[in-house]
Amino acid sequence: MRRMNSSIEEFRRALVQAFGAAVSDTAAGLLLTDEGVQLHFALVPEGLHRIGALQLAMLRVEISVLSGDEPAAEKLIARVDRATQRGGG
Predict the structure, then answer these.
(1) For residue range 19-47, what is the model confidence (pLDDT) as tens digits?
(2) Whole-model pTM?
(3) Which stretches does DSSP call E strand in the chain?
């Protein structure tokens, strides 16, 4: 499970940008199929996080491995983490 400063739309856009047609929508989130691994991302919006005047969307992302071996799934999850990171300063 991950908590992210992102909306569902932003998370989906980052995955599609990184993985293209390997991403598809499900009733509860997104499905990613890549190199024999299938991951499901259940996406649950958690409202806004406020820091002064700044408002950030919060998203709970629950990851399920539907197929593929553990090392390959961990490698793909690491790629997803890099694809969905935001810059900082």
Answers:
(1) 999 999 999 899 999 999 999 999 999 98
(2) 0.87
(3) 2-4, 23-25, 29-34, 37-51, 54-67
Q: What are the distances in angstroms from CA 54 to CA 7, 8, 48, 49, 51?
A: 15, 19, 10, 8, 5
Look-up of token digits 């969905």: 84
Centre a 10 Å sphere on the Cβ of residue 21 and count the other Cβ atoms it contains.
7
The CA-CA-CA angle for residues 63, 69, 71, to 5°, reads: 80
Q: Residue 7 carries which side chain, given as an amino acid letter?
A: S
Kindly state the helix (H) or strand (E) to which residue 83 belongs, with its residue range.
helix 70-84
